[in-house]
């Protein structure tokens, strides 16, 4: 990750939140955070079941890889010693697509609607804009996930693709996929 600073932000409810890169020593806390967040996040690919199969070792490797990757980042949001938000990005490794990085993000349900998702994403964009050779930040969002879609739109991501019935939920209901992209070069830093 290019920038390592810690940032403190104030949520709408006054909570003071720290945003910073994750530490390898926080692998277990990160896993706990995912296990807490996933049951209320039906529109992300990981499920509580798939997260339960992850180990502290796999999380340690994930954090190490992100921190050592010059075109990657893993940023956590911390409140009173607890991880309550996560965002990350990873660039394609092949040379023809290495100017494009995909992102993921999630906020603990107790902290949603307070401006944390927006603050995390703004920070990730700022980090991405300072990485040489990175031109696009991209993501896929389920069409039913309006909070996320609206957030990405608000921060300037444009819809670049649409795939019908790309996802099937456990109850059998299909959801479409929206591809979105942010041109990092076009955005004022
Ligand atoms: C998507 C998510 C990260 C948003 O985080 P958040 O902290 O609740 O969002 P914020 O409070 O920062 O809101 C920022 C903007 O997002 C949009 N937004 C957030 N919640 C919304 C809602 N319930 N309905 C519509 N828009 C919403 C709005 O544009 C909002 O801006 P505004 O306050 O000016 O209206 C959060 O809902 C989440 O973690 N969801 C589960 C995991 C997930 O789906 N991740 C995305 C996978 S693609």
From TrEMBL:
Keywords: Transferase
MF GO annotations: N-acetyltransferase activity
Record bears the keyword RNA-binding: no
Domain N-acetyltransferase: 17-185
Listed Gene3D superfamilies: 3.40.630.30
Alphabetical list of Pfam families matching this protein: Acetyltransf_1
PANTHER family xrefs: GNAT FAMILY N-ACETYLTRANSFERASE, LD18367P
Protein name per UniProt: N-acetyltransferase domain-containing protein
Species, as recorded: Bdellovibrio bacteriovorus str. Tiberius
């Amino acid at each position: 990750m290019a920038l390592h600073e810690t940032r403190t932000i104030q949520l709408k409810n006054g909570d003071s939140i720290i945003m910073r890169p994750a530490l390898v020593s926080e692998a277990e806390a990160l896993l706990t955070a995912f296990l807490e967040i996933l049951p209320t996040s039906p529109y992300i690919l990981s499920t509580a079941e798939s997260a339960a199969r992850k180990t502290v070792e796999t999380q340690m490797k994930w954090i190490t890889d992100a921190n050592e990757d010059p075109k990657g980042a893993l940023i956590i949001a911390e409140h009173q010693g607890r991880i309550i938000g996560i965002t990350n990005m990873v660039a394609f490794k092949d040379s023809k697509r290495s100017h494009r990085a995909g992102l993921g993000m999630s906020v603990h349900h107790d902290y949603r609607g307070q401006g944390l998702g927006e603050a995390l994403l703004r920070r990730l964009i700022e980090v991405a804009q300072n990485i040489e050779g990175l031109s696009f930040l991209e993501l896929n969002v389920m069409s039913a996930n309006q909070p996320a879609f609206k957030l990405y739109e608000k921060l300037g991501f444009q819809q670049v693709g649409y795939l019908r019935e790309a996802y099937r939920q456990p109850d059998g209901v299909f959801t479409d996929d929206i591809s979105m992209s942010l041109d990092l070069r076009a955005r004022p830093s």
